Each structure stands twice: as C-alpha cells, then as structure tokens.
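Researcher: Here's the sequence for the chain we discussed earlier.
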Amino acid sequence: MPDLSLICVVVDKANKPATYDVFDAAWKALIQRFENTLAHRNFPGPRNPDDMGMLFPDRSDEKKLNALLRSMRAFNPVPSQQSSGYRNLQIRTIIEDPNYRDSSHSYFIQSVDVTAFLLYQHLSPSTYMRKKSGQNYFGRLAPIVCKHASPRDPSYIVRL
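Model: Thanks. This is the structure I predict for it:
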C-alpha cells in the first residue's frame, strides 16, 4: 500500500521526571506532525489545497485524547525556531474528534499495532527477535515512513 504514511513517535521514559505525561506528550507530537504534514501537503498522492484528516485510534483514554485535541484547536504552543518564545499553531486540518476503533474489528488498527511492535523490537529487540533477526523487520517499512515528520532522524522517527 504505497499511499500509506507512517508517523512513528517514541518516548524514551528513562530521563523523564515522574510527572512527565507520556500519553499527552506522545499524542501531542503525533497530532502536530500529522497536522504539519497535512497542512504542507507532504503526504503521497494527490495534493489538494483543502486536505483534511481524521484520527482513528485504538480504544484508549478517550476523554483525555478528545480534551487534548480540542485544546490544541484553541491553544497549541510550539517553540519558535527564530526566537526563544512560542507560536500558537492551532490545529486546523483535523476535522473531527478521534473515531475510536476496537482493534479486533479493524485491520488498519491491527496493522498499526504490528508496526508499533516492530518499531519497539527495532529499538530494543528481545532475545528471540535478535536470534531471528526480527529487529530488522521495521526496516521493511522504510518506504512508507513519513520522512517529513522527523527529517533529522535517520529512521524518521519522532523521538521525545
């Protein structure tokens, strides 16, 4: 499926304080990268000036994710590259609250779960995966990893 694009976010919890909200940080990074890629028309396929998107996550903390996305539509502070301040880059291209799916009823959600597992094994392979060279499977997804989401990372992974 060459028209798919993966945006991968990894949170290294090792050096984070106990108060660090992994859920919030990971979803915020994913939403911002999705927004930027849509807004700049960097996904493959036709480039329409009015491209919009939706989120289809697995069942998780639905209330928290809905609240996060709604707040990002009003206030989304992003560090400025020109100064030490922030810019308010409100979410504009995600048209609806997330549409939650049960992974047992969605092949797309199941494929995302497999992708997350392969990414985890790529970064921290288990003994079995190392023995079977399973840590290399994530590399097979390189053609569909969104290179615009984290262009400075050699694997194009958003790392927090």
